[in-house]
């Protein structure tokens, strides 16, 4: 179930992945991992998974998807210096990163209640009494709300709502977060 984007090192954060070329003038599809997918262009020069290659998104628009009404993460982007389909084709699969310093600059005030999803991956998930329940492996969002995916010691994974009621405490520096398992509701099983 996982597949959560992650950075190869802790100094940068994965913001998106370039997909197929779109049209003849060098536009590309980008699967954007930013809260607002169109905002990926606000971070300036983006680092890439190719050493010494940076890319700058100069223009974005939503990709048309008639099949789904869910939150769209794929956008159509114009990249500086990419002006042909051939150049765009060569970028397919390249990951786009931003340095943590640049993220802090764009964010402004640092709030201890704010964090990046990537920083939660790998944290221990502990029950209220401190007992180890498992490890955070992903924070998916399938359209309704954020979820937290925890791999239990048994190897089984569980999805829980990523809410303050279920995850009341996050201690990134200590390497864990606390969870309160929701009580099962009465009723017939499906």
From TrEMBL:
**InterPro entries given in the database record:** PRC_barrel-like_sf, PRC_RimM, RimM, RimM_N, RimM_N_sf, Transl_B-barrel_sf
Instruction: Specify the Ribosome maturation factor RimM PRC barrel domain's residue ranges.
Output: 118-184
Protein's GO biological process: rRNA processing
User: Mind telling me what this protein is named?
Assistant: 16S rRNA processing protein RimM
Q: Which residues form the RimM N-terminal domain?
A: 15-101
Keyword vocabulary terms for this entry: Chaperone, Cytoplasm, Ribosome biogenesis, rRNA processing
Q: May I have one GO cellular component term?
A: ribosome
A GO MF annotation of the entry reads: ribosome binding
**Pfam families the record matches:** PRC_RimM (PF24986), RimM (PF01782)
